[in-house]
Amino acid sequence: MLKTGKEHLEGLRDGRTVYIGKEKIDDVTIHPAFKNAAQTVAGLYDIKHDPAHKDIMSFEEDGERYSMWFKRAKTKDDLRQRTAAHKKIADLSCGLFGRSPDHVSSFVTGMSTNPSAFDSDKYKFGDNLLAYYEHMRKNDIFATYAVLPPQAARDPEYYAKQNKEAPTLRVVREDDDGVVISGMKMLATSAVFCDEIWIGNLLPLAPSQVKESITCAVPCNAEGMSLWMRQPISLNAGNEFDAPLTWKYDETDVLVICDEVKVPWEKIFVMDDAVLARSVYIETPAHCYGNHQSNVRFWSKMQLILGLCSKVTQASGAAKIPAVAETVGRMAALEATISGMIHGQIEMAEEWPEGYTTYNRRVMYAALNWCTESHSQIVDVLRELCGGGILQMPANSYVMHDEQMREQFEKHFQTPQLEAIDRMKLFRLAWDFVGSEFAGRQQSYEKFYAGASFIVRNHSHREADWGYFDGIVDNFMSGYDVPEPR
């Protein structure tokens, strides 16, 4: 079933507990901090019902229609279809809405191609995972994940020595009908707009952290669960003209706190296994599917940046300067670079796991590393191309509502290339990308999207065929020996 935007918004009025500071939010679809982003999410659902995009955004199987990100790829064409859907949904937010409905869904879809990875000596949870995948695609579920412990809890030995209980989420009790969990998990981006939260462990656990290894799915309105918001950036936006990105793309970041939350056995996927809790992401295509989506999303963002580089240099007249044209040309080359890496993941696809085809993991992780390393420098180039133009505008567009001020504005802020109002509109957009609080959040988000840089590079280290690369050196050296004495 493909949900509509209206149906999804109605589902968000389900009694979930959301806090901004001490303020409890009763309805995220109408609260000023969330209502515009909620409409953005609704639009992501509605596009699937547009006849022009239906076959890009969804597929048919056994007489039912599902969102494309639930498609389990068996051919390169299947991968191309998935990528096209990711690109379409990313383009709707210019890549600025990171935790869109196709992200975590892709993780679960990848997991479903190898459910045996969830079977341990103690528990056989592979069937639970398959049932959850079916539940997600049949109900068009929008899930986020909370898969990191709070920073204060990443040294379990400290808490053991202090005889204190770490604040990270764990199983506190087992019952006949499920388990009870308590503690904190981060960072559930978009949780206020989601149906459910996947709770797990993307970072390695210590062998002693058995009870913290719980991996499960919990509805956002579960009794005992509360969602603690960071300060909403969207409240800074007085209107869409002055803050066009902040206005509708503040997807929110959330700390998930559970206080005796009950999880039924059928929604549990890993338990009492500190190693398996992380390996399920790597021993299945989950991590590859999900981060391919993030590569595609970054591509959409890169295209907006490239367009802004071109437009702001045209607006200032600097586009004709050879050095400026060279800089914009370099940005065009970078946009083509991420595009090539994304398409390369398909052309170099792996036949893995058995019966399925998966994006090339090495190329995917290379692209992930490129995005993490490059974002700050790319945005800084846009900042330099904007020059002081982004600072040389009135405080807001309301000057246009005063006849005398409007006359002065139109006279003094025009350039030979642009009328004053069009120039202000362009530079407001550029400012929201390079200088606003929204821009600052995007900067941190991209830098730590997949964890610290050493974590991202360790993925590439793990996937490299070191036997092959070492063999190149060994084979070369085998062609010559120590010379005879002279």
Task: Kindly list the characteristics that best describe this protein.
486 residues; alpha+beta; Butyryl-CoA Dehydrogenase, subunit A, domain 2; 6-stranded mixed beta sheet; 4-stranded mixed beta sheet; 17 helices; 12% strand
- Strand percentage: 5-15%
Distance between the termini: 82 Å
* Classification by helices and strands: alpha+beta
Whole-angstrom Rg: 25 Å
What's the CATH architecture of the largest domain? Beta Barrel
CATH class of the largest domain reads Mainly Beta
Order of helices and strands: HEEHHEEHHHEHEEEEEHEEHHHHHHHHH
Helix share bin: 40-55%
Strand order of the largest sheet: 2-1-10-11-7-6
Query: CATH superfamily membership of the largest domain, which one?
Result: Butyryl-CoA Dehydrogenase, subunit A, domain 2
CATH topology of the largest domain, by name, is: Butyryl-CoA Dehydrogenase, subunit A, domain 2
Low-confidence regions: none
SS element count, helices: 17
Total number of distinct structural domains: 2
Average predicted local confidence, pLDDT: 95
Q: Give a count of the beta strands, DSSP E runs of length 2 or more.
A: 12
Given the C-alpha coordinates, what overall shape results? globular
Major beta-sheet overview = 6 strands, mixed
